[in-house]
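Many introductory courses stop at the sequence. We go one step further.
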Amino acid sequence: MPELFLELFSEEIPARMQAGAAADLARLLGAALAPLSPAGVRTFHGPRRIAFRAEVAAEVAAASSIERGPRVSAPEQALAGFLRKHGAAREQLREDDGYWVLEKRAAAVAAATLIAGALPPLLRRFPWPKSMRWGGTSGFTWVRPLRRIVCLLDGAVVPFDLHDGADDGHGLAASNLTEGHRFHAPHAFAVTSAAGWADGLARHRVLVAAGERRQRIAQGIASEAAARGLTVVDDPGLLDEVAGLVEWPVPLLGRIDPAFMDLPGEVMQVSMRVNQRYFALRDAAGRAAPWFGFVANIEAEDGGAAIVAGNERVLRARFADARHFWDLDRRTRLADRVPALDAITFHAKLGSQGARVRRLRRLAGEIAVHVGADPALADRAATLVKADLVTGMVGEFPELQGVMGSYYARHDHEPAPVAEAVREHYAPKGPNDTPPAVPVSVAVALADKLDQLAGFFAVGEKPTGSGDPYALRRAALGIIRIIREGGLRLRLTGLIDAAGAGFAADGISPRPADELLEFIVERLRVQLRGEGARHDVLDAVFAIGRDDDLTRLLARARAVADLLGTEDGANLLAAYRRADSIVQIEAQRDGHEYATVDPDRLDAEEERAVFAANRALSARTRAALAEEGFAAAAAGMAQLRAPLDAFFDRVTVNADRPDLRRNRLALLREVREHLRQLADFSKIQG
């Protein structure tokens, strides 16, 4: 199959848009070229180009089809509509069995013809997040000025341009010419294939694969750091961004002025990352090292000495700004900043940060008694957690919320658990972040997340589809992780009600606790699914009582999952389903269920065995569940497997005698209700 290659060469594309643009290009071309059955698709993206490569059919084969229209006797308007729909004339129709019929014939279309016709409108509507016009009066837009288009089919140029009526499309037309590195090899050169393009650009100091650029950056900086006994702070996001800023990565290291090494390590790292896209380094003890890594886009004749010196000079200026905020912020006690939070809006419908702090104090105090925290320390921490929002450092670097509050709290000689809670109350922020474990931190972190959820649910700002502007799913997952990883025993309904009461005191009507509990449990389902666990088991357990103690809920779910993983459990599930199905069908037929078993009417030995085993085991199950002995309850239930198997093998439930039938249905219902003490097995899938 011929190879189609397309390169769109422009001025520098923002790094954050490159991967998405390459994906959009593949998606749009896949749809536009579907008749050519594209295969072996590969995309490329970088600072000045996005590209697409695929194998396509040489042509779209000729085809014919028969379209049946309205009846011959139909009104003229119906026939006219049919002709308009298919772009046909009346002379092309023929009659067939009382209907008008159109035979459509499509001639073969060469791949080059289809491509040349599809690309101009596709490029004109390309979905960049932001686009710009440049030069002249053309209406054609691109993320940055588009300079060249390479479009080749089997090595030959596919001729098309972006001319559209009076709009000349900046005079852009397809060719076989691309350009190399802006400084090392800025001249144009011809290409004939995707492989030749990649090899040619490599000779002209451009690496076209983002992954290759990323790897060269990571390995280069790590190697330079290792030579000095240092390691690089892991930062995948920064690696991806820098790989989108350079075409020919040259990793380098620079020194940090010793005068700034007393700044908090987080301040140094964030300042370097946000302002300069520098990589932070650590020494063998894990402390901030007096070095930084960065990436140049050229191979300098002096080995990069002048580039390093220039970046060191820039960093000194950045750190001088950071020191200004650091010194200025510490002149005012963190506690003295709390009143200023009344002037900071948390959300237009939820009031100020000051009002939020007052809610957090009440809620953290209530949670504290359940997690073993000192209520006075939880109250003090909740008072201070948002105070760093009005500091200069957090104003400059919002990423340092909580971190700076912790430093300032320590500077003010606040108790260590208070300072740590200020730092950790946002945690966990993501899957790789560790949840707080110290009781005061746990109390404040849970209060923060419950207040966030209760507030936004109260004002109707719940997540919809993939949209979650207030990170409520992350807050729910944070609550789950704190509880799961800490093995906490909390009744969430009561805490949700307490969070809602804080809003009620502020004149905001809270939502029912069950609604928010269901949202949290749904996040737990998602988490379990991501772990490869059986989320249907969680549904089966939650369905019998909407347990709001997540630790107990998960313990019960584990016991059910373990039971179902055994042969006895699998057979017991089958028996449950059979019993449940029979009881439901017969109850619908009779208009009611038979609830009471008459032991004197147990006719067969097998039904007497089921009755005796079920009554004995049911009592044991109740006792085990009362002590939260879920594994013991599950093990006891497994003993029903053998008598139930024998019952279904040898006993006819719908017996001819009505009294036997009623009694056997009541027996099966009793078995079902016994098993439902542990879980609603009807929710189990598969």
